[in-house]
Write a structure and sequence with these properties.
The protein is an all-alpha fold and 208 residues long. The protein has seven helices and no strands. Helix 4 packs antiparallel against helix 6. The radius of gyration is 22 Å and the shape is globular.
Amino acid sequence: LVAFAIGVAKLKSLNIIHLKKTSWDIAWIRRGIVVAFPFLIISIAQLTMDFSVCYLIDYFLGKAEVGVYSFFYGIANVPTTLITSVLVANYYPKVINVYKFHKPVPEIKGLIRNFLWQSVGFGIAISAIAILLIHLLLDFVNKQELLEEINLFYLMLVQVVLFSVQVVIQTGLYARHEDRFLLYSAVAGAFLNILQNLFLIPGVGITG
């Protein structure tokens, strides 16, 4: 907020903007809020899943297990970040354009198919590299508690492959203006995630 205020003041001093002469398009602002609100809820649902699992692990198992989970989660999150940065950033505008400009169905299917195969292939390849490197990292760290929970890391890599499929579906739904399904799935996912963790963490442990 401070940076925003300083920026506005500087632009005003340079006579680039004139606040008194500026008219506010209230209708446009309302439409923007309506469009953005579902994505706010989606973000809150995702944050709920990310933070609630750490809280529940701490509650049922203790802080040491939270450390183990956070260690593996941070490493397993690298492939999903790469998928988002490398593939999604490339395909996102392409997918939006083919739906926006009503391209032929075969062209749309071909683009989505290529996106899916590249995303899944990239996810599997990066996960395989992570499996090869994780043991070198664990040998360097030399923490027995991490070695004992290595199966947790493998489960997280399965999630990476599932994410590589999910991100293609998500992009397609957004391009087709079917955002409500993204909202429904995010809210349902957050609810089921918490419910599942309440039952599985006490019974199965950290892999639950």
